[in-house]
## 1
Amino acid sequence: MVAKNLTEYLGFKPSAYKHWDPNPVVGLSSLCFAVPSCAFAAVVLAMTNSLQKPYPADLLFQLLFYALLCFQYAVAVIFCCLADYVYIRRGHRSFFGKVDIIWASFTFFASNVNFALRAGLIEPAVCSSIAILAFMYSGSSKSFQQWIFRHSFWHFIGGSIGTYGALRFAPMEGLLWPVMLDWLVHMLTATAAMVLALLCAATSMAEHGVGVWRCPCSVEGSGHMKPGRV
């Protein structure tokens, strides 16, 4: 049975699955989720490098929660790229598409819980509503070009909200805010350099005849593809 996303359980009937196909813009837009991963990591690094141990129980809890969310968003980049670029095919949802749904739902829930613990219920509810609307906006795409823009826009919104949730009322922000921003700049710079190096390597391999940009799902008989919806 094909996994449904959260909006489908609420009665939303998507149409994007009729139009989606591999596109490098959508694939690269999955990197939007690397930004909140860097933001969560920046807060963790700022605390662990600036505060004396042992940490109070509530601070240790947030520290571990932030580390978990950093990991979740980092893995989300990989699953998102695999689901929305590497293995995507029109009218079908791949195995990685289902994994992406499950992982994204888990990350969405954990992010909301963490943000609510620091900011109360109103701001997380508003942010969640915006994220859901952006996802439904993508899901209601009526053409391939429309899906490219809307799904990339959804990745941008999701990454922006995740970053906002990481930095808004961050633990010890009154004391460590400049340090957090400094670590964030370092993390983003390192991530950008790594991505650029990988893209250069992939481009060089492609120029030498290595099919690094070829989607494995294009191979007939791939076991990763199954009929499904957005």
## 2
Amino acid sequence: MAVRAQYEHSSDIGVFAKLTNAYCLVSIGGSENFYSVFESELSEVIPVIHTSIAGCRIIGRLTAGNRNGLLCPSGTTDQELQHVRNCLPDSVEIRRIDERLSALGNVVACNDYVALVHPDLDRETEEVIADTLKVEVFRQTVADNALVGSYCAFTNQGGLVHPQTKVESLDELSSLIQVPLVAGTVNRGSDVIGAGLLVNDWCAFAGLDTTSTEISVVENIFKLGGHQPSAIATSMHQSLVDSMT
């Protein structure tokens, strides 16, 4: 099931929230409508944690994480760290990383088993990511963009990447991550997938501008509606036919 949401008139909800299979972080200072979208879908299964990171609301771009851990930038205050730690499940480890590329959400994309990272990330940071998130780490680009966290989103079921990703790159990334991938957009043609889409193994949240065709691609590739990835072409074809008749 994919749900549309908006943060203070912005469809870039991936900037203001972080979703994994074990927890959901949402930025403070939003409207009740924004919070209720997440809480109605998630609160019975995983904690929805209201917080800021390093005094900022753009927590989705500053943090990286999966069901095993959460990584925060060095600017995160002790109070923020303690608050999030108190709300997280005991099985989730939280670490503060001293990394030059401090917007971790832009430079790290991961599921519960594999992480793609910016080619220029520190070696020490790479080791902390592998250790805390319990993942295999690969230095990669997506459609020649080094900001892998901004231009793709993937779970243990599937992934969505930048629309201009070449077929060979798509195959290479797919074999690295070991999940099916598709090139696509969110928010009516935006290629910044990470900013417009939050997804885990059983639900997804997309920006309010996301079209029904984009939603159907998301539901298919992430297996949210019981569909197989092969159904994407059929559903898109049907949508195009419907829109032209």
## 3
Amino acid sequence: MIQMGNVRLKHVVLFLLLSHQLIMTSAVVTNNRLLLAVGLATGAILSSYNGSYDWSPSTLAVLTAIILVTLLPTAINKDIAFQSPLVPTAQALSGRLENTNTESSSCTAPGYSLHPVLGCIKLSTSTTALTPEQWVAKCAEDGGKLILINSATENQALVDFLKSDPKDVVIQGSRVSVSSPWTTDDGQPLPFVGEFQGISNLAGTLRIIFTSSGKWANVNPTNVFPNAVCEIPV
């Protein structure tokens, strides 16, 4: 029987780990788990033959367990080969590029731009002032809707968006009575209600205007306004 020489077990383990990474890279590219298992077994045999290492039954059992675990399908993906986090597959790279380009490629309507916080938006101006309901229809002509403010962060982002040319704009938000909740144009509760300037509990049906200061204002739905911000979902 071959006896233990100068090569110790830790050297053999290091050799196996290096062999594992090299073969794993090839296995990912070729989508073949079997290649990985064969590579591990070959590395073990070479280390035993060239390194004068005596593989005891317990060590062989460990190696066998490693190979079996390598060959077993994972719960995450039973159809493709083992994937190293260091070597992304072509499909993963393609998916990342697609996600990066999806939003920008879908914000192509004339006058719209992709804002990092507010999404695909447009400051719409009409030479003839329109009621809020008419602005709803005008945004719909572009395939969009009046912008919906979902948070304080988005509220501030809209202030910054209008900073170069401050003006009051029509946004989503209405209610039918003083006791009714503010709702979106789809009839759902507003996800965020900003700070109102002036009196916020006026009676009757109301719409919301976003002022250049970032505060909101209730207005009669028959009032007309020259500006609104539209958005197109992306």
